[in-house]
């Protein structure tokens, strides 16, 4: 747990999420990173790991939510905010809702796999019982470039 509130340095949660996304790219993962923060304290930082862990559910958001729950010893992340470099998919949107995340901040929107502004628009469904406040499009060009470079470099 990194306590910026006491350390004095201003946390940059989205910057940390971008660092985690770059770390994921180095492992050959789709570059997505996520950070959970509460009251100025970073509770969890995670990058995508499905290939590394042989686990299709090992998206950055899921791993960050699990780690934050472990850090707080709670199955809910009441009052916590999630920062992600890419619009969450349907699975992660579900986890965000179940975790009772307060605010969701994300960078690039994802017309192909996103489920917040695109596709199922999970938080707008009547069967969604907790929706976070959503702030999208932050540092969008940086996030889009990260993904574009990753997929370009993977082409033979
Ligand atoms: Zn996901």
UniProtKB/TrEMBL annotation:
<dbReference type="InterPro" id="IPR016192">
    <property type="entry name" value="APOBEC/CMP_deaminase_Zn-bd"/>
</dbReference>
<comment type="similarity">
    <text>Belongs to the cytidine and deoxycytidylate deaminase family. ADAT2 subfamily.</text>
</comment>
<dbReference type="InterPro" id="IPR016193">
    <property type="entry name" value="Cytidine_deaminase-like"/>
</dbReference>
<feature type="domain" description="CMP/dCMP-type deaminase">
    <location>
        <begin position="8"/>
        <end position="117"/>
    </location>
</feature>
<keyword id="KW-0479">Metal-binding</keyword>
<dbReference type="InterPro" id="IPR028883">
    <property type="entry name" value="tRNA_aden_deaminase"/>
</dbReference>
<keyword id="KW-0378">Hydrolase</keyword>
<dbReference type="Pfam" id="PF14437">
    <property type="entry name" value="MafB19-deam"/>
</dbReference>
<protein>
    <recommendedName>
        <fullName>tRNA-specific adenosine deaminase</fullName>
        <ecNumber>3.5.4.33</ecNumber>
    </recommendedName>
</protein>
<feature type="binding site">
    <location>
        <position position="92"/>
    </location>
    <ligand>
        <name>Zn(2+)</name>
    </ligand>
</feature>
<feature type="binding site">
    <location>
        <position position="59"/>
    </location>
    <ligand>
        <name>Zn(2+)</name>
    </ligand>
</feature>
<comment type="subunit">
    <text>Homodimer.</text>
</comment>
<feature type="binding site">
    <location>
        <position position="89"/>
    </location>
    <ligand>
        <name>Zn(2+)</name>
    </ligand>
</feature>
<comment type="function">
    <text>Catalyzes the deamination of adenosine to inosine at the wobble position 34 of tRNA(Arg2).</text>
</comment>
<dbReference type="GO" id="GO:0002100">
    <property type="term" value="P:tRNA wobble adenosine to inosine editing"/>
</dbReference>
<dbReference type="GO" id="GO:0052717">
    <property type="term" value="F:tRNA-specific adenosine-34 deaminase activity"/>
</dbReference>
<dbReference type="InterPro" id="IPR058535">
    <property type="entry name" value="MafB19-deam"/>
</dbReference>
<dbReference type="InterPro" id="IPR002125">
    <property type="entry name" value="CMP_dCMP_dom"/>
</dbReference>
<feature type="active site" description="Proton donor">
    <location>
        <position position="61"/>
    </location>
</feature>
<keyword id="KW-0819">tRNA processing</keyword>
<keyword id="KW-0862">Zinc</keyword>
<dbReference type="GO" id="GO:0008270">
    <property type="term" value="F:zinc ion binding"/>
</dbReference>
